[in-house]
């Protein structure tokens, strides 16, 4: 049921992903949706929760002896593989963030919360790789930059047919440059 719901919601968007569409795609009785999830919002919550767990499971710690560039490349390869393995989940999250404009604030908040969990995961992995504090300005900036690049890469893949791997390839080197920038104290709160 969750696979079907994820696919339908990613294809039609949360607002147009009706319970009848989800039921038809899943091949289950209507009562099953209400029994297991209570509502369409409950289905969305279950899909988002499962997606976040799947992604967290695919992001492993780098080998202890890996140099930072290799470890960052491994992290981004794992993220890319997650996106390619679960494309409907990523499409759903991005599409659902925009649903607040249609009066659907709860689904949009859930999608933003999932994005924040992802940001925290990326920030913690980057911090571990570069031996910096996870709550530092540098770790936060690198995680936000990574998320922005990934968002842009997804758009480029869809709109321009540019392979995700191609767009993301320079990101590990860019992260090392940002790290160096922070290490050298070239940043200031006013910039």
Which residue ranges are poorly predicted, with pLDDT under 50 across at least 5 consecutive positions? Answer: none
Total DSSP helices: 10
Assign the structural class, choosing from mainly alpha, mainly beta, alpha/beta, alpha+beta, or little secondary structure. Answer: mainly alpha
Number of strands: 0
Q: How many angstroms separate the termini?
A: 48 Å
Short description:
The chain is mainly α and 191 residues long. The chain has ten helices and no strands.
Task: Give me the secondary-structure topology.
Layout: H1 2-16, H2 19-26, H3 30-37, H4 40-58, H5 68-85, H6 87-97, H7 105-130, H8 137-160, H9 164-168, H10 171-183
Helix pairs in contact: 1-2, 1-4, 1-6, 3-4, 4-7, 5-7, 5-10, 6-7, 7-8, 8-10
What does this protein structure show overall?
This protein has helices spanning 2-16, 19-26, 30-37, 40-58, 68-85, 87-97, 105-130, 137-160, 164-168, 171-183. By secondary structure, the chain is mostly helical. Helix 7 (105-130) packs across helix 8 (137-160). The model has no long low-confidence stretch (mean pLDDT 89).
Looking at this protein, list some descriptive labels.
191 residues, mainly alpha, 10 helices
